[in-house]
């Protein structure tokens, strides 16, 4: 008698590694998004499905498919111990949908890969009190749709009023060809004349049991001057978890953008316009005061927001790890290289503007290793840098003034020979935005990005901190210049008799012409590269940022009025480059005398630049998701996807 051996027809695969399982999980998430899209929920709902489990996966340290009830106990009972019930419910909803998708479509495959049966870690013991039942809607079959519409088609023959029934049938017939969810069709079905219009619309207006309405979005996914490739969120966005583990509400994906950030960036663009295009501050009066207030402080605001942007790319508030983290770092490196190229190209136009983009590129690479740190640690590093690095820069500059080692470095720098500048020594030490003294601005912006900016009181505390820094910076410089013997005299002598009395807050003090005196460290002017200037400029930047965030969160009417300015902020790189190209065009190609004017005749030119940028941004953001150069940055970062 022969022995028959029967094999299981199912294909068994050998267990895979953690990295391969993570890649498989990425494919599963893509399938989840596709399934949800076919079911028809809102785009914002679909976006939350793969993004909300991300902080849970980062805490867990392994693919979510291996997560068990004990791991969920640890996450919801320890990490979210002090969170609001709504926060725990929001964090639990998306994993519940994810695990239902795994059980429906990948249970056998995951068992073959991992030798364990996948099950949702949320059970009756650790499920949050509010309902987090999965709502993975799968489209009905053709037979079910046919049965549904067959009943409606028979309604006109049996109902008392033929007109309303025929209207109902005419409305739902096109939907039958599209195949939406039956619940959505029933909700859109018109009511009969005998029913109250108020009752018919109660659910749509937020009545009992109605689904919440998706908030209206104001801006598209435009990228900003340094990095932004993240979607816009409404002014009153749900809260994101704080970086230090403090309680927070469930919020949008970690790449969420606050409208207030765009508004602050738009104001910084206009501040740079005033420094490069507008009248000289010597015109005096209110106009001169406003122009002087923007000098140097708008670029400091840009640098602070650049640090904010870096944290957004690398994962806010929880830094990305593993392959995702390496890809984010690669994107930063690529963007830094692109910004360096833009900076070299704009500097070659010889417009007389100190182009900041090359400095930004090197600054990104310098502070990138700090992106995993917490907000408090970053704030301490920024403070220590503000106190120490200006003194280090002063010593290096004095060494450059008294020696020739910087010239030897420049002679061996190939980029310096090509561009005709000091390049690496200029970027690090001698330029208008040296890396040593501009690092604290980016690190401070990174610390702010780690905070939950929608928490009650956080904006007021941010404004108070900014006011304290501004007072200690400018006020400390004012006192030091007057209390230290011969300080004002030394500063005036080094700047050729400049207005040393205004050196505590204004660039009108000038720059040292020969050797920089030690008393220069007491100056607080925006471009003086001193501790006082860094403290004061950081304080002003924080106050402006807090004001913009407050406007976006508390003043919806003013937010609508400021929408064109925020639109400029979403395309900051484009408008920065365009205004320098325009300066070159009107000075070297088609000469316009008013462009180079220092009197009030230049004020209409400045207003024209601002109006043109505002109008172009308003039109462009309605037609396209990103600005042209922002889209170029986005395309340049695509190779980072191949990083393993």
Write a short abstract of this structure.
By secondary structure, the protein is mostly helical. Helix content is 61%, strand content 0%. It is built from 29 helices and no strands.
| Structural category | mainly alpha
Q: Uncertain spans, ≥5 residues at pLDDT below 50?
A: 1-12, 180-257
- Largest sheet report: none
Specify the number of helices.
29
Beta-strand percentage? under 5%
List the helices and strands in order: HHHHHHHHHHHHHHHHHHHHHHHHHHHHH
Q: How much helicity do the residues have?
A: 55-70%
Spatial gap, N to C terminus: 55 Å
This entry's quaternary arrangement is single chain
Give average pLDDT, whole number: 78
Shape: elongated
Give the C-alpha Rg: 30 Å
Question: How many beta-strand segments?
Answer: 0
Q: Which features characterize this protein?
A:
single chain, 644 residues, mainly alpha, 29 helices, elongated
